[in-house]
Amino acid sequence: MGFVVGLAYNLKKDCPRSEMVVEDADAEFEEQATVDRIAKALRAAGHRVVRMPYGPGLLSRLQRDQVDIVFNIAEGWDGRCREAIVPAILESMGIPYTGSDPLTLAVCLDKAVTKAIVSSYGIPTPRAIKVESTGDLPEHIGMGFPLFAKPAYEGSSKGVRSSSKVNDREELVAMVDWITGTYRQPAIVEEFLPGREFTVGTLGNREVETFPIMEVRPSADLEPDSFVYCYNTKHNNLERFLCPAPIPDDLAARIRDVAVRAFRVLECRDLARVDVRLDAAGNPHFLEINPLPGLSTVSLFPIAAMAGGVSFEDLVLRILDTAVARVNLVACAAAQEAMTRRSRSALARS
Ligand SMILES: Nc1ncnc2c1ncn2[C@@H]1O[C@H](COP(=O)(O)OP(=O)(O)OP(=O)(O)O)[C@@H](O)[C@H]1O
Ligand SMILES: [Mg+2]
Hints:
Low-confidence stretches: none
CATH superfamily of the largest domain: ATP-grasp fold, B domain
Number of strands: 13
Bound molecules: adenosine-5'-triphosphate, magnesium ion
Oligomer: single chain
Distance between the termini: 33 Å
């Protein structure tokens, strides 16, 4: 069944200049090519696509163009609730959309809140504290060095550098000072996980499917305990991906279990990507979750899907179909059509 699909997104080129204070400021936003590829995949399956760039015109476009559903990849520009804004607008207008609801999107962008929820369900995650400034750092942190410091409300490796792994108090203070000053938000200081790193793509709702587990490794001869998958690594192509990860079945099952449980307890919908890293003893820990995972050609979610035999085009349709089934859109559209037919024939009779 062909739908009218709104496509909501934030383009890098539209990023407000006021946000551009640091080199990775626009890292989470889309290239035009990604939006074009998604639109093309939707059109090829018989859907009509209405482009809806994030911004002041979005509301009037939604009022003017009647869409059946929105394919949402809009990140919003600023603040820890930025990813929740488009879904909140769509909810207020009763328009279905792909992906998680505003509460889940806002919660998952705040790493401290996410970790509090995840750990309350017994999912292992490194201990952490959230600090507004260096002045909030307690004299005794209660966790041994090395620690890891990162912005509390970012993604796409924003504010994460090789120097995020801090070995002493002096390095910690410098990092927290840089994060809070540059990104204008609190920092998370957490236990450093020295083991191998994995990411897991998830798709579904009642039934949650996982794509093959991807291992993210340094390309150079680096031990996992000195590897940080961050802005510097990405920009200098210092990482390599192994998908499926070369790991024994029992470890794979434990990593998948962390990912799917996190997806469920955070009440994610349709899709997400979960980062997992091993501690010194080889036990998997939840690092963070991305309920709006990137869909560019270099994004890990579509690469993992591909390793599972799902092409980019199929992935886009699977995301849409998952949302369509969740909101029962086909049944709703049929009921709406039947109602219109009934009222037309009643009018004709009168
Ligand atoms: N506690 C930790 N111990 C070890 N490494 C960590 C820790 N936290 C983060 N890292 C490293 O930093 C990277 C980025 O951290 P994180 O995934 O939290 O940031 P992000 O910007 O939300 O990521 P994404 O690019 O997936 O959106 C991780 O992939 C990992 O390599
Ligand atoms: Mg991550």
